[in-house]
Amino acid sequence: MIGIIVQLSLSWLIVWLFEKGSLSFLGFYPTKGRLFDFVLFFLITAICCSTGFFLRMYFAKEQWSLNHSLTPNIILEAVWWNVKSVLFEELIFRGIIFYILIKKIGSLKAIMISAIAFGIYHWFSHEVIGNPIQMAMTFVITGIMGLLYAYGYAKTFSLYIPCAIHLGWNLTQGFVFSQGPIGKGIFIQGMPQPIVNVSYLVFFIILLVPMLSTLLINFFLLRQRKQTEFKQ
Hints:
The chain is mostly helical and about 230 residues long. The protein has 8 helices and 2 strands.
């Protein structure tokens, strides 16, 4: 939480020094439209992310069961941990620097730079430095998601939609299906894992359907929206 406070303080200082502005460029003020967008994009992303696990259950015969050791405190801590991590990353890659880049070089170039930086950042956060294959996969997957997050901000000049998509993906994968760094979540995988051989086609379907559906559906919805003009 301290890191987020520092980020907000530095963002305010930078935008005030150079533009005599405020943190309104983050679009934090909660309007009905922004709250509706947050819920909509969060749910769409969570459902799309879940399809990968349903496909794993169907094709790979995985079994998932409810974690009976869950408590309200564990759930709250997990949600808060994910909210903090998402907000921290969004303030870095879709915050003041991204806002300035949009104004200086335009949305398209700014989105590309933000996505590339986001992909490189995950080499370190996922600790894959030194493994070329994992580095390439991490860069492509997180970089493409970074394109969507950046486009969401550039289209609306608000962090509500990028945060909703980012949180919907991370919370579903990391906590709902216990694939994150914080331990067991809502559903846990039955052990031992079944040994099932699947074709390369099925493997790529399981791998790509969640991400592609997330990208395409959210991009389509964003594309239909009228471009928001930022006013300080």
